[in-house]
Amino acid sequence: MNIANYIKFLPPIPHNAGMYDVFGIFRNNKEATFFPVVDGRGTVVGVVREYNLKDYTYGIFGRELIKRENISRFITKSLIVAMDTPLEEVLRLSASNENPDGIVVLKDGIYAGIVLNASLLWLFEENRKQTRARLLQAQKMESIGTMAGGIAHDFNNILMPIMGYAELLLKFMKKKDAAQISFINQIIVAAERARDLVAQILKFSRHGSEEKTRVSLEAMISEVLELVRSSIPKTIEIRVAIETKNCTVHANTTEIHQVLMNLCSNASHAMRERGGILHITLSDHTGPILGWSEDTELPQPPCVRFTIRDTGHGIKPEILTRIFDPFFTTKKQGEGTGMGLSVVHGIIKGCKGVISVESEVGVGTAFHIYLPAAAPAPDGKPAAFGDEALTLFTKHINILYIDDEPMIASMAKEMLSFLGFSISSVTDSRAAMDIFAANPLQFDIVITDQTMPGLTGLELSRKLLELRPDVPIILCTGYSEIVSAEMAKTMGIAEYLIKPVDFDKLKRTIVNLVNKAEVK
Q1: How far apart are alpha carbons 385 and 463 in whole angstroms?
Q2: Is 3.40.50.2300 the CATH classification of the domain at 398-519?
């Protein structure tokens, strides 16, 4: 929303005009309560208000005197703004405007018209309503985010033994019965879906902690289209237009992949009955936000915009402002959870970007994503990645495992023992501290939960590192607002994992960390 649509053009009055002419101008324009005054170069020097002329009009002056009288002594100051001035700034400046009837607007420094005070009052009220709506939306998202963080830890603690014991059951089955294996695999799949749902909730509430790197949107679009082409109906044509060379942003690869997949999936769903065209465009962006958005300002330039447009059924205007609400969906039961667009919204906000939507019923929908372009990569060779070059040691690995949940501690001991490690499993963090202090060199690595009574995982890690600074520590958590992966690393913690932990990944992590410690 801006002032451009409320500008009323009135011919400016020359600064040397006579009062008789000025009265005629006001008589012929009944709606105007003031007129701008310009000098010989066309520069606005002020305004003449009808209110200030009342006493003069009904005074003792005769017609000839009025004709000779100049308007200069009736010119008063007024707020003058550029047409592209943000509405919030216009309204802020209007509070101290010396002209109570309205403001003067310039375009590229040239007089363009006026905005009457009545229009400004209406704009102020609309802006207040929109600001309040954005505030309520932010508070709603914050409340749901707080709830999400609260349930994530407990929910992931429940999922971890379900997944772990199901995997153990598969490994310990002596008789490989196809039906039983299928049943167990379904348990694992269901648990993984629940894990992913918790991760999505945390992401849309901005509690996700994913590392951000330089990501090529062009490469991501190509990768996603490889998957999309095999899953959408052949009645849908895909068109791609890359209109910029500056297509690198600072984001998380997995999250951008998720954004593209989700929007392409929604577009495909909107066109599945009649077919259509899926347009994907990547370009630079310098103009205003396209369509509707909760945000009013774009990221700092340079800005990259990618658009996913479909020719489907469109979105009804009355629900357009709700599409980013969590759990809101127009799909039939079983076709969607209503989490997709709210997750997309959270990811884009986490990247300091903006998302907007344009839609017309029966024509189609376009989602526009605006992200700050990443700075050019520094010269030089890329940094080394991965642990593949480490020499693997075959020595026996002793692990101290701490988790206050007895079921998790028991399951972890069974699983890690099965994987070939020697493990001491403890459910009391203070007891774990005493065991380690008695002989700090007996353990090759420590794995600890974060949220525990007595000593938290962070506090326990500090004390263990004081006793033995080189001990590798893996900190696991279902969810924590107190500690992040970055904070853990700065404290000397070797690895930070989110529950439920994948035990194959945990095994590789343990071996790699112990190998690194041996190399040192």
Answers
A1: 30
A2: yes
